[in-house]
Amino acid sequence: MSHNSFGHLFRVTTWGESHGPALGCVVDGCPPGLPLTLADIQFWLNRRRPGQSRFVTQRQEPDEVKILSGVFEDDRTGGPVTTGAPISLMIENVDQRGRDYDAIRDLYRPGHADYVYDAKYGVRDYRGGGRQSARETAARVAAGAVARKVLGDDVHIRAALVQIGSAAIDRARWDWAECENNPFWCPDAVTAQAWETLLDDTRKAGNSLGAIVEVEATGVPAGWGAPIYGKLDAEIAGALMSINAVKGVEIGAGFAAAALTGVENADEMRAGADGKPVFLSNKAGGVLGGISTGQGIVARLAIKPTSSILTPRQTIDRFGQNAEISTKGRHDPCVGIRAAPVAEAMLACVLADAKLRHRGQVGGERPFSP
User: Fold this and answer.
1) What is the DSSP string of 169-228?
2) Which has the least CB within 10 A, 34, 102, 187, 329?
3) Which residues contact 181 (CB under 8 A, 6 or more apart)?
4) 299 membership: H or E segment, kind and range
5) Buried/exposed 331-342: b ≥16 CB within 10 Å, e otherwise
């Protein structure tokens, strides 16, 4: 199976299956001399970890990461630093229960990639989907922790869940701090309470719901990215689209821009005190012509409802016979709830790559000349 790697100078390869002994990633291209400890990575993995509320899968995985290579305890710096060699990270699976899937080993789950994996490879791991499982995203979050080290303290990345099903937040009540106070990464405390009832009812009905996650990066300077075929927004969209269950991505105003006029959509500029431009709006989402503007980079991703549900669905088996399927096991009633840390990680990886490529082409940040 190919295409398990992404990135250019900062390149990530993930490996492992949902119910295999372990999964992980190899990060290649990380500059040497960056402080990197287990705690630096574990902090972000803990935010994605399953089983932390009744609204997500109850699979109990500690997601404890191990650093196998690429880091050295340097007595000159007083702590572990990256060496410039590939960084290999491993996360053991300790609560895999492949027997939960014995009843569907010959059945294709509607909405899942079971059929297409079989059609392409002639073999599939039916235990939780194997490689197609969202369990793989733990490795992405680990890689994202390394990417944040490359980006440094000036770039801040955060994500929030802004809609579950048809129930969206009230943006007038947006409070980033509230995301840490509820199990949904929701910036609106009132809507978060309503979501609890909504998801409890959905789960009891044997059903699931989709969601929308919004992710932003601030502190990105103007100039990252490239025009034509290396557009920063195209690479962000591709990275976010690669996340399991994502069916749509928009940057800035996104699809809503089609309903705006040119007057409404243009992000007007004025001269700042330092001579650099001050944008009066951010419909572009921080990217113009494929290059960062210096504003916040904003993207949203639409996530489909969890395909593994208790409600019986019509399907076929691998022998081409009609069948009915009801998926038992430990599944998220809304997979979007745990997508926020994954979206942050993917955006971090794209931006780390963009930073290194920008530095390689122009040698650093260029001063603004009006």
Assistant:
1) --GGG--GGGGGSSTT--S-HHHHHHHHHHHHHHHHTT----EEEEEEEESPPTT-B-ST
2) 102
3) 189
4) strand 297-303
5) bbbbbbbbbbbb
* Whether 158 contacts 175, CB under 8 Å: no
Successive 10-residue mean pLDDT values, the chain, 370 residues: 94 94 97 96 88 61 92 84 97 76 88 93 86 92 98 98 98 96 96 96 93 98 95 98 97 98 97 92 98 98 92 94 84 88 98 96 62
- DSSP-assigned states of every residue in 213-241: EEEEEESPPTT-B-STTS-HHHHHHHHHH
**Token pair for 10:** 């900062």
Model pTM? 0.94
Measured between alpha carbons, how far is 154 from 365 in angstroms, rounded to an integer? Answer: 14
Distance CA 290, CA 287 (A): 6
Question: Which residue shows structure tokens 């996104």?
Answer: 254
Question: In this structure, what token pair is assigned to residue 275?
Answer: 């001579």
